[in-house]
Design a protein that fits this description.
Blueprint (H helix, E strand, L loop, with lengths): L23 H14 L7 E7 L5 E7 L2 E3 L2 E7 L3 H9 L1 E8 L4 E11 L2 H10 L2 H9 L9 H14 L11 E15 L7 E7 L5 E6 L2
Antiparallel strand pairs: 1-2, 1-5, 3-4, 4-7, 5-6, 6-7, 7-8, 8-9
Helix pairs in contact: 4-5
The protein binds flavin mononucleotide.
The site of flavin mononucleotide has 16 residues, from strand 2, strand 4 and helix 2.
Length: 212
């Protein structure tokens, strides 16, 4: 399949030194709000990269559920492949692609578990079916058939028929504590606008323009 003619020119916007807000968190919030306002699907979907102990990267989509100047939180199974890699390295990268705006944001940073109480608060806000799903799926493990999940789901439905579904020990949030943010706006002739925020020795954010 020859895809060499599959290309678009990026003409929807520009991003310059004057547009940059002092805090990357404020900048992220501004772009995130614009992504929400443009009605694109799942603006909080991010591609999360982890690395195994032997240096093999892997990626998957997770949903951003909270962000503030403390960091960016997502929820997952603590025994999944991503979690095993996070626990071993303490580091991730994440990418938001907002294609209708011809924008991407790249984040790198360290990761910490959110508190049990924060995970519980979010867990209790989830629909009953998703709560059962967290108890049912041994995420990332090999299973012999779909019926393994369906049988386990029936068991969980019976087990938790009465009362609240408790937070599983193997499920909760991770907070990415960013050490860099890159904001990318597509421009014509592949001469895109890129700005990176990093921290100086005094832990103050500074920005630099990167070549596209
Ligand atoms: C749109 C979308 C949203 C997803 N959100 C999450 C999420 O928030 N948490 C999660 O654990 N998996 C989520 N997944 C599934 C993951 O992409 C992935 O398949 C799963 O977490 C197992 O990844 P791992 O085996 O690399 O750990 C989502 C998938 C898609 C396509």
């Amino acid at each position: 399949m020859d895809l060499s003619e599959l290309r678009q020119s990026y003409t929807k916007g520009s991003f310059s030194e004057q547009d940059l807000l002092a805090s990357p968190f404020e900048q992220f919030e501004k772009w995130f709000q614009q992504a929400m306002d443009s009605q694109l699907e799942e603006p909080n979907a991010m591609c999360l990269a982890t690395v195994s102990k032997d240096g093999q990267p892997s990626t998957r989509i997770v949903l951003l559920k909270d962000f503030s100047d403390k960091g960016m939180t997502f929820y997952t199974n603590y025994e999944s492949r991503k979690s095993v890699e996070i626990e071993a390295t303490g580091k991730v990268a994440a990418n938001f692609l907002w294609l209708p705006l011809q924008r991407q944001v790249n984040v790198t940073g360290r990761v910490e578990r959110v508190s049990k109480s924060e995970s519980l608060k979010y867990f209790l806000s989830r629909p009953f079916g998703s709560q059962l799903g967290a108890w049912t799926s041994p995420q990332s493990k090999v299973i012999t058939s779909r019926s393994v999940l369906e049988t386990k789901l029936d068991q969980m439905k019976r087990k938790f028929a009465e009362g609240k579904v408790p937070l599983p020990d193997h499920w909760g949030g991770y907070r990415i504590v960013p050490d860099s943010f890159e904001f990318w706006q597509g421009r014509p002739n592949r001469l895109h606008d890129r700005f990176v925020y990093r921290k100086d020795e005094a832990s103050q954010w500074f920005t630099e323009r990167l070549a596209p």
